[in-house]
Amino acid sequence: MKIQSLWLCMLTLAVLCSAQQPNSRPVSQQASSAHAGSGVKEMSAETIFERFASRVLFLVCDESADKSLLASGVLVSPDGFVLTNAHVVEGCQNMTATQIHKKSRQPYVPVLKYYDERNDVAVLKIAGRGFDYFGVSASEARIGERVYAIGNPRGFEQSISEGIISGNREFDGSSWIQHSAPISPGSSGGALVSAHGELLGINSSFMVDSQNINFAVPAPTLAIALRRARAVSGDLHFPQLGDKEFSMGLLYYEGRGVPQDYAEAAKLMRQAADQGHAEAQATLGALYQSGRGVLQDYGQAAAWFRKSAEQGFPFGQLFLGVLLSEGHQGVPKDDIEAAMWFRRAAEQGNALAQVWLADAYHAGRGVPQDWSEAYFWYKVASSVGKVKGLLTEEDFSILLNLAASSLTPEELSRAQGRAQKWIAEHPSN
């Protein structure tokens, strides 16, 4: 069976669709859900929408400066915990969650608290209290009961559709609800609500070229995820596509737990890099630059550094700048572009890039010679004490004195003030 993840890629509103191949193994029917005999009257579609639509958030995941994906998330606590799919958060650089209530729109910046790729569930947290929310029970959906899907299919905000529970399934050890309420790319993470108003699950995927064979993560799985998310003290980084291959590649590169094997490392890094993993792209570039595990090829190195740099990864920016500054076969020397990449990495706090940028101002290479800028970036870089493999504290002292000797007292005072302010505002540098 070919399963389709529910994403909407905002590249001129083109749909991004990823496939899975689950092995169908039906699970035995268990006891009916608690609401079966609860006596709660079934609600109409109008009532379901009016009462619950505002509990489904509109998520926008920015993967890069020009690529955003749309999905849905469900509020499940008064203090802002939000359930969505694991595939929704993969690859996010930034995310926005918007709560829509009639004509009112309130945006939030969520943080990631829990991530479970196998069960396709993630838990986000937004700031605030007093949210209207769904409770998460541990009851199982009843086959044949009427359900509603609420989400943002193809970017159409707060859409509602109706269907029934078609089955409770198990694929590769994970439980799923099969249902017939129509869903589309963008519905990922949206609510699957019973006619009694219970959150039965969150929508996850659908079968391609089939008629409303759709799947949702069931409430018992969601309850476990929410409980675990509450136990997390800090925030997680959004997982990046290719993380697993990158991590395995690092093990082979460093020889940790496995024999050191640069060729195997390069193969795994290539798999991660092809998925857009910025750090893997920079690492693959370094392998091509050094000729470890692959034939040395400066052109290939520069190409992978550029892919990484364009995603904003500072080491990709730094190493692309170094290649352009030095010039190699297949990489024409370009001091102006090199200085641009040094600046982008330097402004993110990369001390090596700060030294290269300071040196560019020192020598007037790719930028006008400017002793004040040189002093500023040397001073900022020196705040780490020393730069491994490049400059010691004594080296910084020499360079700072050289730059200072070329400045008037007023110019030096301004450069020192700028540097102190920058360091104070970037304590992690």
Structural features, described:
The protein has 429 residues and is an alpha+beta fold. Helix content is 36%, strand content 23%. The strands form two sheets. Strands 2, 5, 6, 7, 8, 9, 10 and 11 form an eight-stranded antiparallel β-sheet that branches.
Task: Tell me about the largest β-sheet.
Answer: 8 strands, antiparallel
Number of individual domains: 3
The name CATH uses for the topology of the largest domain is Thrombin, subunit H
Please work out how many helical segments DSSP would assign.
13
Helix fraction by DSSP (H/I, runs of at least 4): 25-40%
Oligomeric state of the chains present here:
single chain
Report how far apart the termini are.
Answer: 50 Å
Structural class, please? alpha+beta
Q: What letter string, H or E per element, gives the SSE order?
A: EEEEHEEEHEEEEEEEEEEHHHHHHHHHHH
Unreliable runs? 6-37
**The CATH top-level class label of the largest domain:** Mainly Beta
Question: Which outline best applies?
Answer: elongated
Label the CATH architecture of the largest domain: Beta Barrel
